[in-house]
Structure formats: structure tokens, C-alpha cells
Amino acid sequence: MNIDAELVSALLTEQFPRFAQLPVRPVARQGWDNRTFRLGDDLSVRLPSAEGYAAAVEKEDRALRFLDGRLPVAVPAVVALGAPGPGYPFPWSVRRWLPGETVAAASTLDQVALAKDVGGMLAALRSLPTDAGAAAGRHSFYRGSHPSAYSDQVQTALRTLGADVDVPTCERIWLTATTSVWESEPVWFHGDIAVGNLLVRDGRLAAVIDFGTCGIGDPACDLVLAWTHFHGEARRVFREAAGLDDATWRRARGWALWKSLVVLSGQSSPDEDDEHRRILAEVLADPVV
């Protein structure tokens, strides 16, 4: 399915004619689950790229309406919820465009300050009432569930990679990650705390975007930034600011291990610039706790 500016303009004309005269242009860095377009200067349009991601649209709409104004940083405000139309079979949304640049694109950042900001934001997210959230499950691609949901993929990856990875260490980390559970009441999780979903302005965290995998459950999946991005002192500060017990951090290490293994073994998106080879090395070397 070709999701382009022409399709977006046609959907807007049919369903939201008040926006039809605004210019539509794709954003430079597209995500895997959705295609995003700028709509004029102040809005954006977000469309699921495949059927598997469509169920998240209405859930994300409810979550964002609840979370807006309740976190120490901004989230995308929902403007309108679109329906399937000619040439596009899924629900879609119009959001407020948030200014800033992603952590991935920012050239210079104080990583320790960023670690404190992100950790504090996650602590604030966990503190919120959960009535507006959806219990972790298929819609969140099992983020917020127990990491053992992906044990089959981990075992397949280790068989596929063989001597290319330190299998005994990977197995030990995975066993440790899957032998504890979240024992408190379920809490909010984002589900994809990654450098492409964190916006900064003037060197500080300003917004969090892409709540498509959010829900209510175990927050361990939100801690993987400790291995995917932070190092040294910033990693320690993130651990301190985010809080949570050692067992949750061990499950978080398992989530980071799973992602790198499935990418490196070809079960997921390709490993660009050997990023997941580097992340796997970080996961194997540092338990954080």
C-alpha cells in the first residue's frame, strides 16, 4: 500500500475539509509502524502502515487525551480521528505538531541531564491513574507483559546466530530476566522509549511521541534506553531517576537482549550501521543493577 501525500490530501478533503487546503509533506524520518506527514505548520497526520498497527489508533487516542498535561513533558494532542476511506482501509489521526528535534537527530546533548529527564518522566508516567489505559497484550506487541512472551524468538535467534554471539551469557541473562514478575499493581508504560520518540529543545527533554504500544502493565520494557543509548554516568543517573527494583531492571535487560537478538537473527527489521551489534555488546557487558 502506497501511503503518500496525495492519499493524505484525499482523506482530509473527504473527512476534514477544514484542513484540505493545508500543505501535506512527509517527515524526513519515518517510523516502522506508522507513516507521518506534516500538515501545515502546526499539525501532523499519522497513518498505520499495516493492519497489525491499526488497532493502536483508537487506544492511542484515548491515552493521549488522558496523558496530555499530566506529564512533565508534552505529548501529541489529538485534533481529530479519521476513519477508513478510499484507498486506505485503517483508522488514522490528526495531531498537533510538537516542535523540537529527536534525540537521534540532536548533535550535542548533555546525556546526564537527558538521563535524569527521561527517568523522571517515566516515574511520573507510572504514578498516574490507570483507568484510561489498556492492559498489555497483543495491541502493545506484548510490551508491558512478561518478557517470556518472546522466549521462542530468543531461542530461535540463539540457534540461528550460534557462534556469532556469546550464547551461554545470553541464555543466563534471559533466564534471569524471565524468573521474576512485576508484583505491584499494573502501571502505565510507553512501550517504545527510543531516541526517535524523544524530542528535545534547548538541550532538555521537551516531549514524548509515538504512544502506539502504550498500555498498563510491567514498566520494565521502558528501561531499555539504559543499554541502547546511555553510557557511564548517564546510565547510572537514568537508573537512579527511573527508580524501580533490581528484578525489574533484570527484566529490562532481557527486553534489550531480545530486541537485539531478533534483529541480528533476521526476525525483525535489518540492523542499520551495526547498531544492534553494539547494543548487544552493551547488554552482555553491563547489568546496570
In brief, what are we looking at here?
This protein is an alpha+beta fold and 289 residues long.
SSE blueprint and pairings:
Blueprint: H1 5-15, E1 24-26, E2 34-39, E3 43-48, H2 51-54, H3 56-67, E4 78-82, E5 92-96, E6 101-102, H4 111-126, H5 151-161, H6 167-177, E7 187-189, E8 198-201, E9 204-208, E10 215-217, H7 225-228, H8 232-242, H9 246-264, H10 275-285
Antiparallel strand pairs: 1-2, 2-3, 3-5, 4-5, 6-8, 7-10, 8-9
Helix pairs in contact: 4-8, 5-9, 6-9, 9-10
Content-based structural category = alpha+beta
Order of helices and strands: HEEEHHEEEHHHEEEEHHHH
Taking all Cα atoms into account, the compactness measure Rg is 19 Å
- What is the second-level CATH architecture of the largest domain? Alpha-Beta Complex
- What is the helical fraction, as a range of percent? 25-40%
CATH C-level name of the largest domain: Alpha Beta
Full CATH superfamily name of the largest domain? Aminoglycoside phosphotransferase (APH), C-terminal lobe
Strand order of the largest sheet: 1-2-3-5-4
- Give the uncertain stretches in residue-range form: none
Give the overall pLDDT as a whole number: 95
How many strand segments?
A: 10
Shape descriptor reads globular
Largest sheet: 5 strands, antiparallel
Measured between the Cα atoms of the first and last residue, the distance is: 45 Å
What is the name of the CATH topology of the largest domain?
A: Aminoglycoside 3'-phosphotransferase, Chain: A, domain 2
Total individual domains = 2
Total helical segments: 10
Strand content: 5-15%
Protein name: Aminoglycoside phosphotransferase family protein
InterPro entries: AGP_Transferase, Aminoglycoside_PTrfase, Kinase-like_dom_sf
Pfam family, one: APH
